[in-house]
Write a structure and sequence with these properties.
This protein is of the alpha+beta class. Helix content is 25%, strand content 25%. The strands form 6 sheets. The protein has a 5-stranded antiparallel β-sheet with strand order 6-7-12-10-11. It binds flavin-adenine dinucleotide. The site of flavin-adenine dinucleotide has 33 residues, from strand 3, strand 8, strand 12 and strand 13.
């Protein structure tokens, strides 16, 4: 194993915080990963993909493995209309989506331009514009970091939820995902443009009956206009998850704040946009040193240059406290805090 020591991480994660890894290695294959796990003899490891969903609050002292396992392939037919397609954990998510679209494979178009790797996508069941990974997920392969065994896990094993999965709960830190399999449509595409923003953008593009490629183009346009590019401004996308409240609490909140957007969920609970709550508390565009709340989208915390992870975490905690004080709602981070 080619370990490197005292490695700067600033360019290896999208918040761009200046911290270092004591011990770091890149793994390019399942064999290398297994060899590394064998050498570590059960000692803890941390895994890194594209670094677009982590906030580093200090140097990483636990050995860090950068999962760069490549590969992607159409495996074969799956029923009448679908194909089984896989990608290695180290593949860039957006490039994989583009590759699928080039072959007219449908299902991932609404998830265009989400940063990061294929291997991390199931961890928080990535989602955007009305679609979640779980909808097109078939199964994955993962290495158990304690036993060194390679396992196959299906949708049930992964227990996907809203920005959540088994890997964020009971399986936290235990498995390295090596390969993900998807069921994608090869014909009769299901166009998902329930989101007003997609419909409006398609209209601006002069598109009446959109193809999956045009939906992807619309999503890319919207994202580029709303979200900061990590190459220019450090961030990890939405910092907080949208909270859910009981139907009774939602009713009380509606009476007190008639403008509050609310989205009833199938289980009777009601989702409230965290960005709206944060904006109402006056944080949108706020800046404290180099840590800030993005001016175009209050859900996104940003690093204007030299913020530390602790600065960003401190701001996140102040935002959380003020939302709780004003609305009685606790917002939780979507980002993994190390
Ligand atoms: C501008 C921007 C926009 C974003 N928009 C969205 C969005 O619309 N929807 C959305 O859901 N997310 C969004 N995100 C968050 C992020 O892109 C996703 O969560 C992405 O899947 C993270 O992938 P990554 O490879 O960068 O993971 P990392 O940040 O490297 O890791 C995230 C977590 O996964 C673990 N991990 C990484 N690789 C593996 C592996 N192979 N096996 C096991 N564990 C692993 C890490 O240890 C860590 O705990 C956005 C982020 C940014 C910066």
């Amino acid at each position: 194993m080619n370990w490197q020591y005292d490695v700067p991480l600033r360019r290896l994660h999208t918040f761009g915080v200046d911290v270092r890894a004591s011990k770091y290695a890149v793994v390019h294959s399942v064999g290398e990963l297994a060899e590394c796990v064998r050498q570590m003899q059960g000692e803890p490891l941390r895994l890194l993909g594209g670094g677009s969903n982590i906030l580093l609050t200090g140097d990483v002292e636990t050995p860090l493995l950068h999962v760069c396992i490549p590969g992607r392939q159409v495996e074969g037919p799956y029923g009448n209309d679908e194909l089984l397609v896989w990608a290695g954990a180290g593949e860039n998510w957006h490039k994989f989506v583009q590759w699928c679209l080039q072959q007219d494979l449908g299902g991932l178009e609404n998830l265009s331009l989400i940063p990061g790797s294929v291997g991390a996508a199931p961890i928080q069941n990535i989602g955007a514009y009305g679609v979640e990974l779980a909808e097109v997920f078939d199964h994955l392969e993962a290495l158990d970091l304690q036993t060194g065994q390679l396992l196959v896990m299906d949708r049930q094993d992964c227990a996907f939820g809203y920005r959540d999965s088994f890997f964020k709960r009971a399986g936290l830190g235990r498995f390295a995902i090596t390969k993900v399999f998807f069921r994608l449509r090869a014909r009769d595409h299901r166009i998902r443009c329930d989101y007003g923003a997609i419909r409006d953008t398609l209209k601006d593009m002069g598109v009446d009956k959109p193809s999956i490629q045009e939906v992807a183009q619309a999503v890319i346009r919207i994202r580029q206009s709303k979200l900061p590019d990590p190459a220019e401004l450090g961030n990890a996308g939405s910092f907080f998850k949208n909270p859910e409240v009981s139907a009774e609490q939602a009713q009380c909140l509606r009476e007190a704040y008639p403008q509050m957007p609310q989205y009833p969920q199938p289980d009777g609970r009601v989702k409230v946009p965290a960005g709206w709550l944060i904006e109402q508390c006056g944080w949108k565009g706020y800046r404290e040193g180099d840590a800030g709340c993005y001016e175009k989208q209050a859900l996104v915390l940003v690093n204007y240059g030299y913020a530390t992870g602790a600065d960003i975490l401190h701001l996140a905690q102040r935002i959380t406290a003020s939302v709780q004080e004003r609305f009685g709602i606790v917002i939780a981070p979507e980002v993994n805090i190390w």
